[in-house]
Write a structure and sequence with these properties.
- The protein is mainly alpha-helical.
- It is 43% helix and 9% strand.
- It is built from 7 helices and 4 strands.
- The strands form 2 sheets. Strands 1-4 form a two-stranded parallel ribbon.
- β2 and β3 form a beta hairpin.
- α2 packs antiparallel against α3.
- The N and C termini lie far apart (50 Å).
């Protein structure tokens, strides 16, 4: 592999122009590509569903197209959530009454840094502290 591909900044530039399918393939190609590809996949999310879907399947389900949380997140679940949520920089949330239980399930992380620590505020996104305020 060429030495320039060992520079994360170059990989970020390449990966930010790749589509979702290509990024998933790149993440599985080699260890060097794994982190930058996942960072690109989770950089900008249309909602919380991609993060919730990384949790064990016994914790969530979909009913009539809506994501439903079946119970509280366990410590191991929070670790999984944190490993992906730290990659999110932009989040476009929808606000429907049916989502209230989903948002409430995320209100009690064992460590506040588990809940979207790198989320940036920009048009159409909500910062992590503002997200908590809106959910309470």
């Amino acid at each position: 592999m060429h030495r320039c591909l060992h520079l994360e900044e170059i990989l970020q530039e390449i990966f930010k122009n790749a589509d979702y399918l290509s990024l998933t393939v790149l993440a599985r190609t080699c260890r060097l590509f794994y982190e930058p590809a996942l960072n690109a996949i989770y950089w900008d999310l249309p909602g919380l569903q991609p993060l919730i879907e990384r949790l064990p399947h016994d914790l969530w389900s979909t009913r009539s197209g809506e994501l439903v949380i079946r119970g509280p997140l366990r410590p191991n679940d929070w670790e999984v959530f944190a490993s992906y949520s730290r990659r999110v920089r932009s989040l476009r949330l929808r606000w429907f009454a049916s989502d209230a239980k989903l948002y409430r399930a995320l209100l009690s992380p064992p460590d506040p840094s588990f809940l979207l620590p790198n989320l940036r505020t920009s048009p159409g996104t909500v910062s992590a502290p503002a997200l908590l305020d809106l959910m309470t």
